[in-house]
Protein 1
Amino acid sequence: MQLSNTAKATGDSFVRNILALTQKPGVISFAGGLPDPLLFPLTPISSTIKEILDEQSPNIFQYGPTAGYLPLREIIASQYNQKGYNTNAQNILITQGSQQGLDILCRALLNPNDNIVVEAPTYLAALQLFKASGANIYEVSLEEDGPNIDELKSIFKKHNIKFFYTTPTYQNPSGITCSGQKRKKIAQLAKENDVCIIEDNPYGALRYEGSEPYSYGVYWSEGTVVLGTASKIAAPDFRLGWLSAPSFLYEACARLKGAMDLQSSYFFQRVFYRLLENDSLRIHKKNLIRSYKQKRDLMVKEIEENFKGLLEVNIPKGGMFLWAKFTDGTDTMELFEKAVKEHVAYAPGSVFYASKGGENAMRLNFSHASLEKIKEGIKRLKRAHQS
Ligand SMILES: Cc1ncc(COP(=O)(O)O)c(C=O)c1O
């Protein structure tokens, strides 16, 4: 029996394989993109759940409309409005994490052989989805302040591009934030060339310094889809994300979601709504920021002390990842096996590229491991590099 072309195009998930490897006891893993489990806001979550159950609403656990819990969509829209992005609850669709939002957008926008642009490097699971959709993937290189505008201009001009997928804030994997100036220019370019912008922003709330530039939606709301998630500020297992789409696209997205899974869990939407509404998450975010910033700083210091310039790091102003490059030509895919023998793991840079690139780079997650494990893990990495 033959698998579908879509199944074949999804290929073997490197992430699944490394996560399996790195979950072996004793391995210190900087490979995944996991929040610190010790920081999950268990107390507010459990009191909110109790509060909801105690109310004994007759509709609890009942089916609900595909678009999602209206009060939650309203609060999400109002948070965007406060940041200058003009949207409303009728344009917010609740999804099963932002990953489902991406899947829905591929189904809504792409036919096989359509052209899209991604950043190089970019988020691995999005790349897999785009490949499975049969899209032709063009890449724009990332500079310190965001995508290279000239490259983007030329790709937009030469190819009939459907959408540009970008994570402009504390990007996964590079940690780079696109400047406000560039966002404005790119939005203008996209508008001129009728290219939809898909702005994926799971990390914006995890800001350690500086300010977050405006969303692309501020510059071009009719052509931008903004994706958000509860995964990094509450818990990934809520499987709760959302997309905010212009009306021409929204209806198609809602229909597609309905056909895929009818709706996301209203129970968790209610829980998340109350956590937002009663300010628990604002307080929780402060804890996350304090802890993750300390971990980021420690990892940077340990790398500097152990590698003395052999491994250069790009210090992100937020998010969960360091992007580090060997200056001595070390191939991180080859180093990976030695690292696992030393019981430490990371994500090799090349997996984040649609074509070639990142051979000397690695992505290191700093949010998940404890401070002690960060210290020990970087020592192990040094041993692997020296072996
Ligand atoms: C850039 C990016 N987009 C989307 C996701 C998916 O997040 P979720 O489906 O948990 O909302 C992630 C997860 O790490 C991510 O890094």
Protein 2
Amino acid sequence: MLQLQDKRLLFRLMFFVLFVLAPILDLFRIDLTLGHLVFFGLDWTLGLDPFLRGETGVGHAALNLFLRGLLPILLVGGGLLWLAWKYGRLYCGWLCPHFSVVEFINGLMWRASGKPTLWEHKSLPERQPDGSRHRPDPRYWLLTVPAILAFSFLWAVVLLTYLLPPVEIYGNLWHGELTRNQFVFITAATIAFTLEFTLARHLFCRYGCAVGLFQSLVWMVNRRAMVVGFDAERARACASCNAACDNACPMRLKPRSIKRKMFTCTQCAQCVSACNEVQRDNPEGSLLHWVQGEEALAVSDRESRHERGCRPARSDNILKTIELVAEQQ
Ligand code: SF4
Ligand code: SF4
């Protein structure tokens, strides 16, 4: 049976393929040459042409604008926000093609240098959650650098196919006949993505992506939303662990922390899987779990109690100690 992370990998792979193929298959693209959307092979216009020709009135035009423009945006945006309100940034961790690149490059950099990003102060511990040892191998830079360039180029080309007919773009690329504007776009976007994927990929996920930011904001509003919860009463079990959950987090968060400090959590559950592995011989199992409702309230309430200046509970003290230790690691 597929493990949680295998399932996630499958979802991410399928969505990445969809992201690349959607314009080619005319599933979704904004064709600037036509001046409207193409959706599942159909021309998706705002239906304003009859009004502009003077054949219909303002009321008909406004209705078309609402039904063909505003309503689909509200439905898709509202659906995504509802999902985030209830389950957090599931889209980011399980589907987003940008986050897939983030994790892929993290993995390669970690193999090459022992650090998942260039900004990490120290190398991650060699001991892995399953007890095996990983030693950095600088030869992986020979894969990391081309992978960053390849993903940057791919992203640049795919983005352009969302704006101009894919047949034209891929045809021009194949024959080396890109127009000047197409060449400038692809070159500039490739350079920008190379810088971003190398230096600022987490920063983009945290603060640069509107889709991610709005998901985080609505998730924070719902204190009962799904969140990774830590069994603070069993915190002593962490003593023999080298903070495998912190090491596994692709967003470089501290998963045992309070919800506010996990504002950009992508619900990837890498921390949960790492703890499952560390505690595989422990009958009580992992100390980290997804929790919802009342249990999720406890993760947020720890924070509220601190903010109201209430005396912290015993488990809060344990948690505070863990946070301090984690920050020093
Ligand atoms: S805290 Fe856990 S679930 Fe959230 S991003 Fe980090 S590893 Fe993923
Ligand atoms: S929660 Fe699990 S993975 Fe994290 S430090 Fe404790 S034992 Fe290790």
Protein 3
Amino acid sequence: MKQILVRGDVVTMNPTRDVLVGGAVVFDEDGIVAVGSTSALLAEHTDAQVHDVSGCVVTPGMVNAHQHHTGDPLVRSCIPDLLPPGAAIFEWAVPIHAAHTPADDEVAATITALESLRNGVTTVIEAGTVAHPEWVAAGMSAAGVRGTIGVWGWDIEVGPFAAPCDEVLDRQRAVVSQFPAGGLIEGWVTLVGHDLASDALLAGASDLARELGTSMTMHLSPTSSDPERYLERTGRRPVVHLDALGALGPHLLLAHGVWLDDDEVDLVLSSGTAIAYCPWAYLRLGQGVTVAGRHAEIVERGGRVALGCDASNAGDTGDILRAAAAAAGIARDRRLLPEQFGAHQAFELATIAGAEAVGMADRVGSLEPGKQADIVVHRASGWGWSPRGDVGLQLVWGTDGRSVSDVWVGGRQVIADGRSTQVDEDALYAAAADAQRSLLDRTGIQVPHVWPHIPSA
Ligand SMILES: [Zn+2]
């Protein structure tokens, strides 16, 4: 059914970045039909269902290019803050992932999808740590988010869901054929990455993504550890080694890419390889983005960069506007360049530039006729928005995802007045609490509290 949003301030993110003050968007389940003046489009589309969004800001659905759908969502804010490098992974993430049942995967993915949508994020790229892809897809579909999905990919000797190279590639192929490109949920080749894949798997996965016409993602160099390990093992830095294996290219989305040297930055740019940049995770975990990160430079030199929120214990909230603010702040502070890389450029990474980096700019990332109707309404009233200023500054610096009130994905309204239209949120939160209790029981992990908790009922 045709719908029309009227009298909103429409931030189109089209090539000239037009903001239509008091404008309208007409759309249906096949995509956006028209964007323009409220009076003209109301007169032209008398059969459309009208949503009056007076006083609101309307933006494209945002893109989160690196998000763990499972594992962390059920132990949010449980992993201690002050741990040595690696402990969060080996003492927490690995056993928690290993103990996940298919039902845990579905609850965790539903929570992640819901959190994304309520923050105005409509496209989410799964990060490469899913054991039961069809259950994760069920959770994403239940909430109504657009996104990609993969399956656990590493061929190391120990670790949950590890397997020999050929078996890992077979699993990846199966997921991509089960969730074909172009659907609301599409299969990608996903490796854990880091130094946790053989050369055969790195090259084979890249070849597979090219052969199947899909994309590939993997973790690389959030800290200096990957460069050290690759230098030891191969004599080359990680991106130089991936280049030697023929793995770089526009089909590849590297998560992080914080610790890159000059040659690696040049290779990322010349190969068209994209990067998912998760600034909060590096700040939260003390990984050195303010020392080594060159994402702003990569963007300014024409590179493909999207923003990500990473995991519920590393980056924490699935709010890409928070990531945008951190990205702009780090770009300016680290380089002492207050005249470059502001809110508007950061919002591009959250929308059209991010969509381009994940290979979906033909479908999402801007409000233009022909694109999918992934649309977000921000309630631009209340203290964060009053009085109104420049809309780019207000979206990135002045507010965050908590202003989001209504969201459509593929022309279907999935959030209305701040609540899911698709899932029973209270039942979901209760299921998540149950799943967490059971997961902690099975793993024997106890959540430490820093401050004394005194029973006082
Ligand atoms: Zn990650």
Protein 4
Amino acid sequence: MARLISYFYPITKKIESDINGTLEITWYNGKKHLNTKNANYSYGSLQRILKFGLEKIELSNVNSVLLLGLGGGSVIQTLRKDFNYKKHITAIEIDPTIINIAEDEFQLQNNQQLEIICADALQYIEENKSTFNLIIIDLFIDTQVPKQFLEIPFWKHLLQRKSPNGIILFNASLEKSLSHKLESIISYLKSHIYMVEVHEKVNNTNTLVIAKSL
Ligand SMILES: C[S@@+](CC[C@H](N)C(=O)[O-])C[C@H]1O[C@@H](n2cnc3c(N)ncnc32)[C@H](O)[C@@H]1O
């Protein structure tokens, strides 16, 4: 019923999170979205932006995905439905309220192909020793990438979690121009022999960075 009504009027439910503030689950045009006060987190423009990035990646060689920032899990839906990716995904999310929303509102569950871990992405990257073929970094609090993910120490650890031919897809900012910090990350990746593609104003807003081993 909510889906049908949403073609005429958006229907919104609000949930408070200690980490992300007021979260909104909105039925709009027959589809459920997850938003914060100022940003779409999942199943709206964010999903289209990450899909644009995934279209630039050869997924047939990808046997494991690490997703930093689960949100409502829309990129998992994109991987499964649009790219028919059936293999394992590990998803790291700091906010337990968001994990509950992903499970209750967007039907994501831990199973053999999906492991959801409630943890800080920086701590996970520092402590975990596994490697992954594709790492998707989609870490925001409202409209901002938390500053530790724009610092080189995070990237040093991240490169150790990537398999030798692995690929990095970084949803880097909502800003229209490259920040000084983002330019430093791009230089750092290039100096570690990565081919780096920078896509600006994807969907008119975000900057996406894709790094592939040379
Ligand atoms: C834009 S949403 C992710 C959307 C998701 N990738 C999707 O496809 O639907 C950003 C997420 O990053 C999470 N996040 C922010 N800081 C984090 C951190 N330090 N560690 C882990 N997750 C974090 C937020 O709680 C939020 O759920």
